[in-house]
Backbone:
């Protein structure tokens, strides 16, 4: 079931990078596309298969990005491609907002069934992560009749105005776009590695809850006016930061105490990436609303929110989307879910443990590595200039990612000085070993 392209020739670099075809493509792209895009290195993609990306010059790369944690079942999994082909011969679009069709109804049923909690749930479909967050934001306000939202520093929730108001990852993402949506506050997300008063007792990890209850709710925001708290189970773009075990449970308890909804942004962590279908399952926390996108359809544009049925009480016309729930995307999502349940979630857990272990073994060899952390195939490596001061090694991080690219391994950064390992969930142990060996070589080069 797992897609296993011929591995003996990955990575395989045939030209300098970028090669001649890539240079021509990039020149055209850079002349006509928005300068706001962030390209870490000059990769011009022709095709993908499993965890392999082939560039326009025929160079073969091992992909540990999955297109920003999207291609859950690998690039162009034959079953997903067949599902797309079958559906595209029947119906490309009709708008699930105004009409009924099978793939949307069936996918809603499947998502409602698998999302945490036994209660009845309903699904609203979108086209992206930001739109899912936007929908959750609007539903929370609509249902609670409250306005205020609370998110975390370091969080990334997307770039539309509502989602951007919740995002607090990098200042470039917000600068120049004010005024954003009012009535949004941020609290710290517990980052035990960087906590200024890190203690062996782990108490510092709950500062943000203290901040919420004893600062925010006491001085500036009445909890009775807060519609929802939105949180990523594991902070993604902000640095692949795993919170301490009790954090989400305790945050949810504070929310419940004040009638505040608890929204889990599982856009990056969801759909099997962390070794469970939804990352909140690691902590047994049942959110009121779950936001999804990225991995849900293995690369087809689709997003969704799943909410408790009693919460999704908005009437016809209050929220909708022309393209959300596109039938071809829904068909791809149904096949993706089948693949996840048939083995990819388990594979993410098993191979993720191997990858975590091998990366941890590098710590003794490379002083630049400050910490390795993650769950399943969502693993971050934090690079630091000094293990005592923990000063972020941002330039070094960028250089390591570049050096990996030059050796045929695709990686992305996260946070200030993190490297993210978010491969397609089809990789095996050999792929993990290859990636770690290249990463280690790149770190050596930097020394
Ligand atoms: C947790 C999280 N939420 C929301 C988004 C926004 O998703 P999109 O880029 O599809 O709008 C992202 C994207 O990285 C994300 O990681």
Residues:
């Amino acid at each position: 079931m797992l897609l296993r392209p011929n591995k003996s020739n990955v990575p395989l670099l045939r030209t300098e990078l970028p090669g001649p075809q890539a240079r021509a493509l990039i020149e055209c792209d850079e002349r006509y596309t928005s300068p706001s895009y962030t390209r870490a290195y000059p990769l011009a993609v022709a095709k993908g298969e499993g965890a392999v990306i082939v560039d326009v010059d025929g160079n073969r790369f091992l992909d540990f990005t999955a297109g920003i944690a999207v291609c859950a079942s690998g690039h162009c999994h034959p079953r997903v491609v067949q599902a797309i082909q079958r559906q595209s011969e029947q119906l490309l679009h009709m708008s699930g907002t105004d009409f009924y069709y099978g793939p949307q109804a069936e996918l809603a049923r499947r998502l409602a069934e698998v999302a945490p909690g036994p209660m009845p749930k309903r699904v609203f479909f979108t086209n992206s992560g930001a739109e899912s967050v936007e929908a959750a934001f609007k539903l929370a306000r609509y249902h609670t009749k409250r306005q205020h939202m609370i998110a975390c520093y370091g969080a990334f929730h997307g770039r539309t105005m509502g989602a951007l108001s919740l995002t607090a990852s990098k200042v470039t993402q917000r600068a120049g776009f004010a005024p954003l949506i009012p009535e949004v506050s941020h609290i710290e997300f517990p980052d035990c590695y960087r906590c200024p008063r890190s203690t062996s007792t782990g108490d510092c990890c709950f500062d943000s809850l203290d901040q919420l209850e004893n600062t925010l709710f006491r001085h500036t925001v009445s909890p009775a006016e807060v519609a929802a708290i939105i949180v990523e189970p594991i902070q993604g773009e902000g640095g692949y930061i795993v919170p301490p075990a009790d954090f989400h449970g305790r945050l949810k308890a504070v929310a419940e105490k004040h009638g505040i909804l608890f929204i889990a942004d599982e856009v990056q962590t969801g759909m099997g990436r962390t070794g469970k279908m939804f990352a909140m399952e690691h902590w047994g926390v049942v959110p009121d609303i779950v936001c999804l996108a990225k991995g849900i359809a293995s690369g087809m544009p689709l997003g969704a929110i799943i909410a408790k049925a009693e919460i999704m009480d908005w009437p016809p016309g209050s929220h909708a989307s022309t393209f959300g729930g596109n039938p071809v995307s829904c068909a791809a999502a149904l096949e993706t879910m089948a693949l996840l349940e048939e083995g990819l979630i388990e594979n993410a857990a098993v191979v993720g443990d191997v990858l975590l272990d091998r990366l941890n073994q590098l710590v003794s060899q490379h002083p630049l590595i400050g910490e390795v952390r993650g769950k399943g195939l969502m693993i971050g490596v934090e690079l630091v200039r000094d293990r005592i001061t923990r000063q972020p090694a941002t330039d070094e991080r960028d250089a390591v990612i570049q050096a990996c690219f030059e050796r045929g391994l695709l990686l992305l950064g996260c946070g200030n000085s993190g490297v993210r390992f978010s491969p397609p969930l089809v990789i095996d142990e050999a792929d993990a070993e290859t990636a770690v060996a290249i990463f280690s070589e790149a770190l050596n080069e930097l020394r």
The domain at 20-76+344-446 is CATH 3.90.1150.10 (Aspartate Aminotransferase, domain 1). Residues 68, 128-130, 133, 156-158, 232, 236-237, 265, 267-268, 293 surround pyridoxal-5'-phosphate (CB under 6 Å).
